[in-house]
Amino acid sequence: MTEPESKRFHFEQGEELLEELNNGEGVSPELSRTMSDELNQLRRHPDDVLIVGTEGTKSVTIFLAPFSVVQGDGPVLVPTFDAHRIVSMVSKEFIQGHADGCGAAEDQDKAQSDWNDLMDKIFNETVDLAEANEELTSWLTDRP
Q1: Sheet holding 49-54, edge to edge
Q2: In 10 A of CB 8, how many CB atoms?
Q3: To the nearest 10°, the Cα dihedral for 65, 38, 138, 73?
Q4: What's the DSSP call for residue 22?
Q5: Residue 60 phi/psi, 5° resolution?
Q6: SS3 string of 39-54?
Q7: Which residue has the higher pLDDT, 121 or 53?
Q8: pTM of the full structure
Q9: Mean pLDDT of all residues in the chain?
């Protein structure tokens, strides 16, 4: 099964993303509110956020942290009490290395494609981690 093509919005297009979510069929008001909150937070602190998006039911925020905090490249889940949010962190150094490589590439179209693939990979890994964590939590709480 192939992953659906992700739709990309640049930082300046936050309002367009919210409009698309609000007009989306089956998009909950909670998701729209959470995404709005995430985008407002992004506007206040843009330097540490890598991705703000949604997998359709929850907002997904991925931020940058030092390698020593992430203890690897990442992504690593960050606990949240909001059932409508998934938060993870990835290493600043890991992302900076990829950004530098993309910036120095001769074929900028290929570099952009590689960057998009990396963002998709990080996003999908974050969602997979969250789903696995939910299954584990459910299994642990359902035990006698």
Answers
A1: 49-54, 59-65, 85-91, 76-78
A2: 11
A3: -20
A4: H
A5: -125, 120
A6: HHHHHHCHHHEEEEEE
A7: 121
A8: 0.74
A9: 77
- Of all helices (H) and strands (E), which one includes residue 56? none
Rounded to whole angstroms, the Cα distance separating 129 from 87 reads 10
Q: Measure CA of the first residue to CA of the last residue in the chain; give whole Å.
A: 36
Angle between the 29-44 and 14-23 helix axes, to the nearest 10 degrees?
180
Per-residue pLDDT at 52: 77
Crossing angle between the packed helical segments 108-141 and 92-104, to the nearest 10 degrees? 160
Three-state secondary structure string covering 68-134: HHHCCCCCEEECCCCCCEEEEEEEHHHHHHHHHHHHHCCCHHHHHHHHHHHHHHHHHHHHHHHHHHH
Q: Does 143 score more than 70 pLDDT?
A: no
Domain-wise residue ranges, the chain: 11-138
Per-residue pLDDT of 41-66, as tens digits, reads 767 767 788 877 778 788 888 989 99
